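[Structure tokenization] protein backbone as discrete codes

[Encoding] learned vocabulary of local backbone shapes

[Begin record] amino acids and matching fold tokens:

___
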Amino acid sequence: MSDFDKKKHWENIYDTKKLDEVSWYQTTPRTSLDFIKENSVSLTTKIIDIGGGDSFLVDHLLDLGYTDITVVDISEKAIKRAKSRLGNKANKVKWIIADASNFNPPEEYDVWHDRAAFHFLTEHSEIQNYTQSAAKGLKENGTLIIGTFSKTGPLKCSGIEIKQYSEKSLTTCFLVNFNKTKSVNYNHPTPFNTTQNFVFSSFKRKN
């Protein structure tokens, strides 16, 4: 995988696929929204969405009244698409183009959300970098929300091999700096009339 250009791959995906032509497409990311609302104390909660791309999560958070939102994605084209869709609302969001496997958080957040980015990290060093970044980027008692393909989910996504997780193995990844608070499995219906099973877990950062 050392010769694989991740950024080029994802720029090509967002350059050639329409919004509803990718498997992760959701008009209403209900599970993510439920987890975030359960773990935000106010509308000023600082939220960062890792690998957010052009998903509709940011739209819903803005509509709910959240005022401090950051979206991170490796693809500049994905972010441009999200900004274009949001119009003037895009100015209320902080946008960062960065690789989740090598991300240095510029601030400390109350909620770190990641749906379907973490499972693309398959190398031990990438996973370790990510867990350290999450710990660095969250305030004490901040909440980490991770949604990944489960052990019964896909083995690949967008032509890339992924790493499947059980509730136990996902918890183990973040054991050093986090305590798990909740975990659920859910089936995501794709635009192609297939189903992808996810494990979704939340964690509290240790003091």
Summary: The chain has one domain: 23-205. Residues 23-205 form a domain with the Rossmann fold fold (CATH 3.40.50.150). Strands lie at 46-50, 68-73, 93-97, 109-115, 138-149, 156-157, 160-161, 178-189, 195-205. DSSP finds six helices and nine strands in the chain.
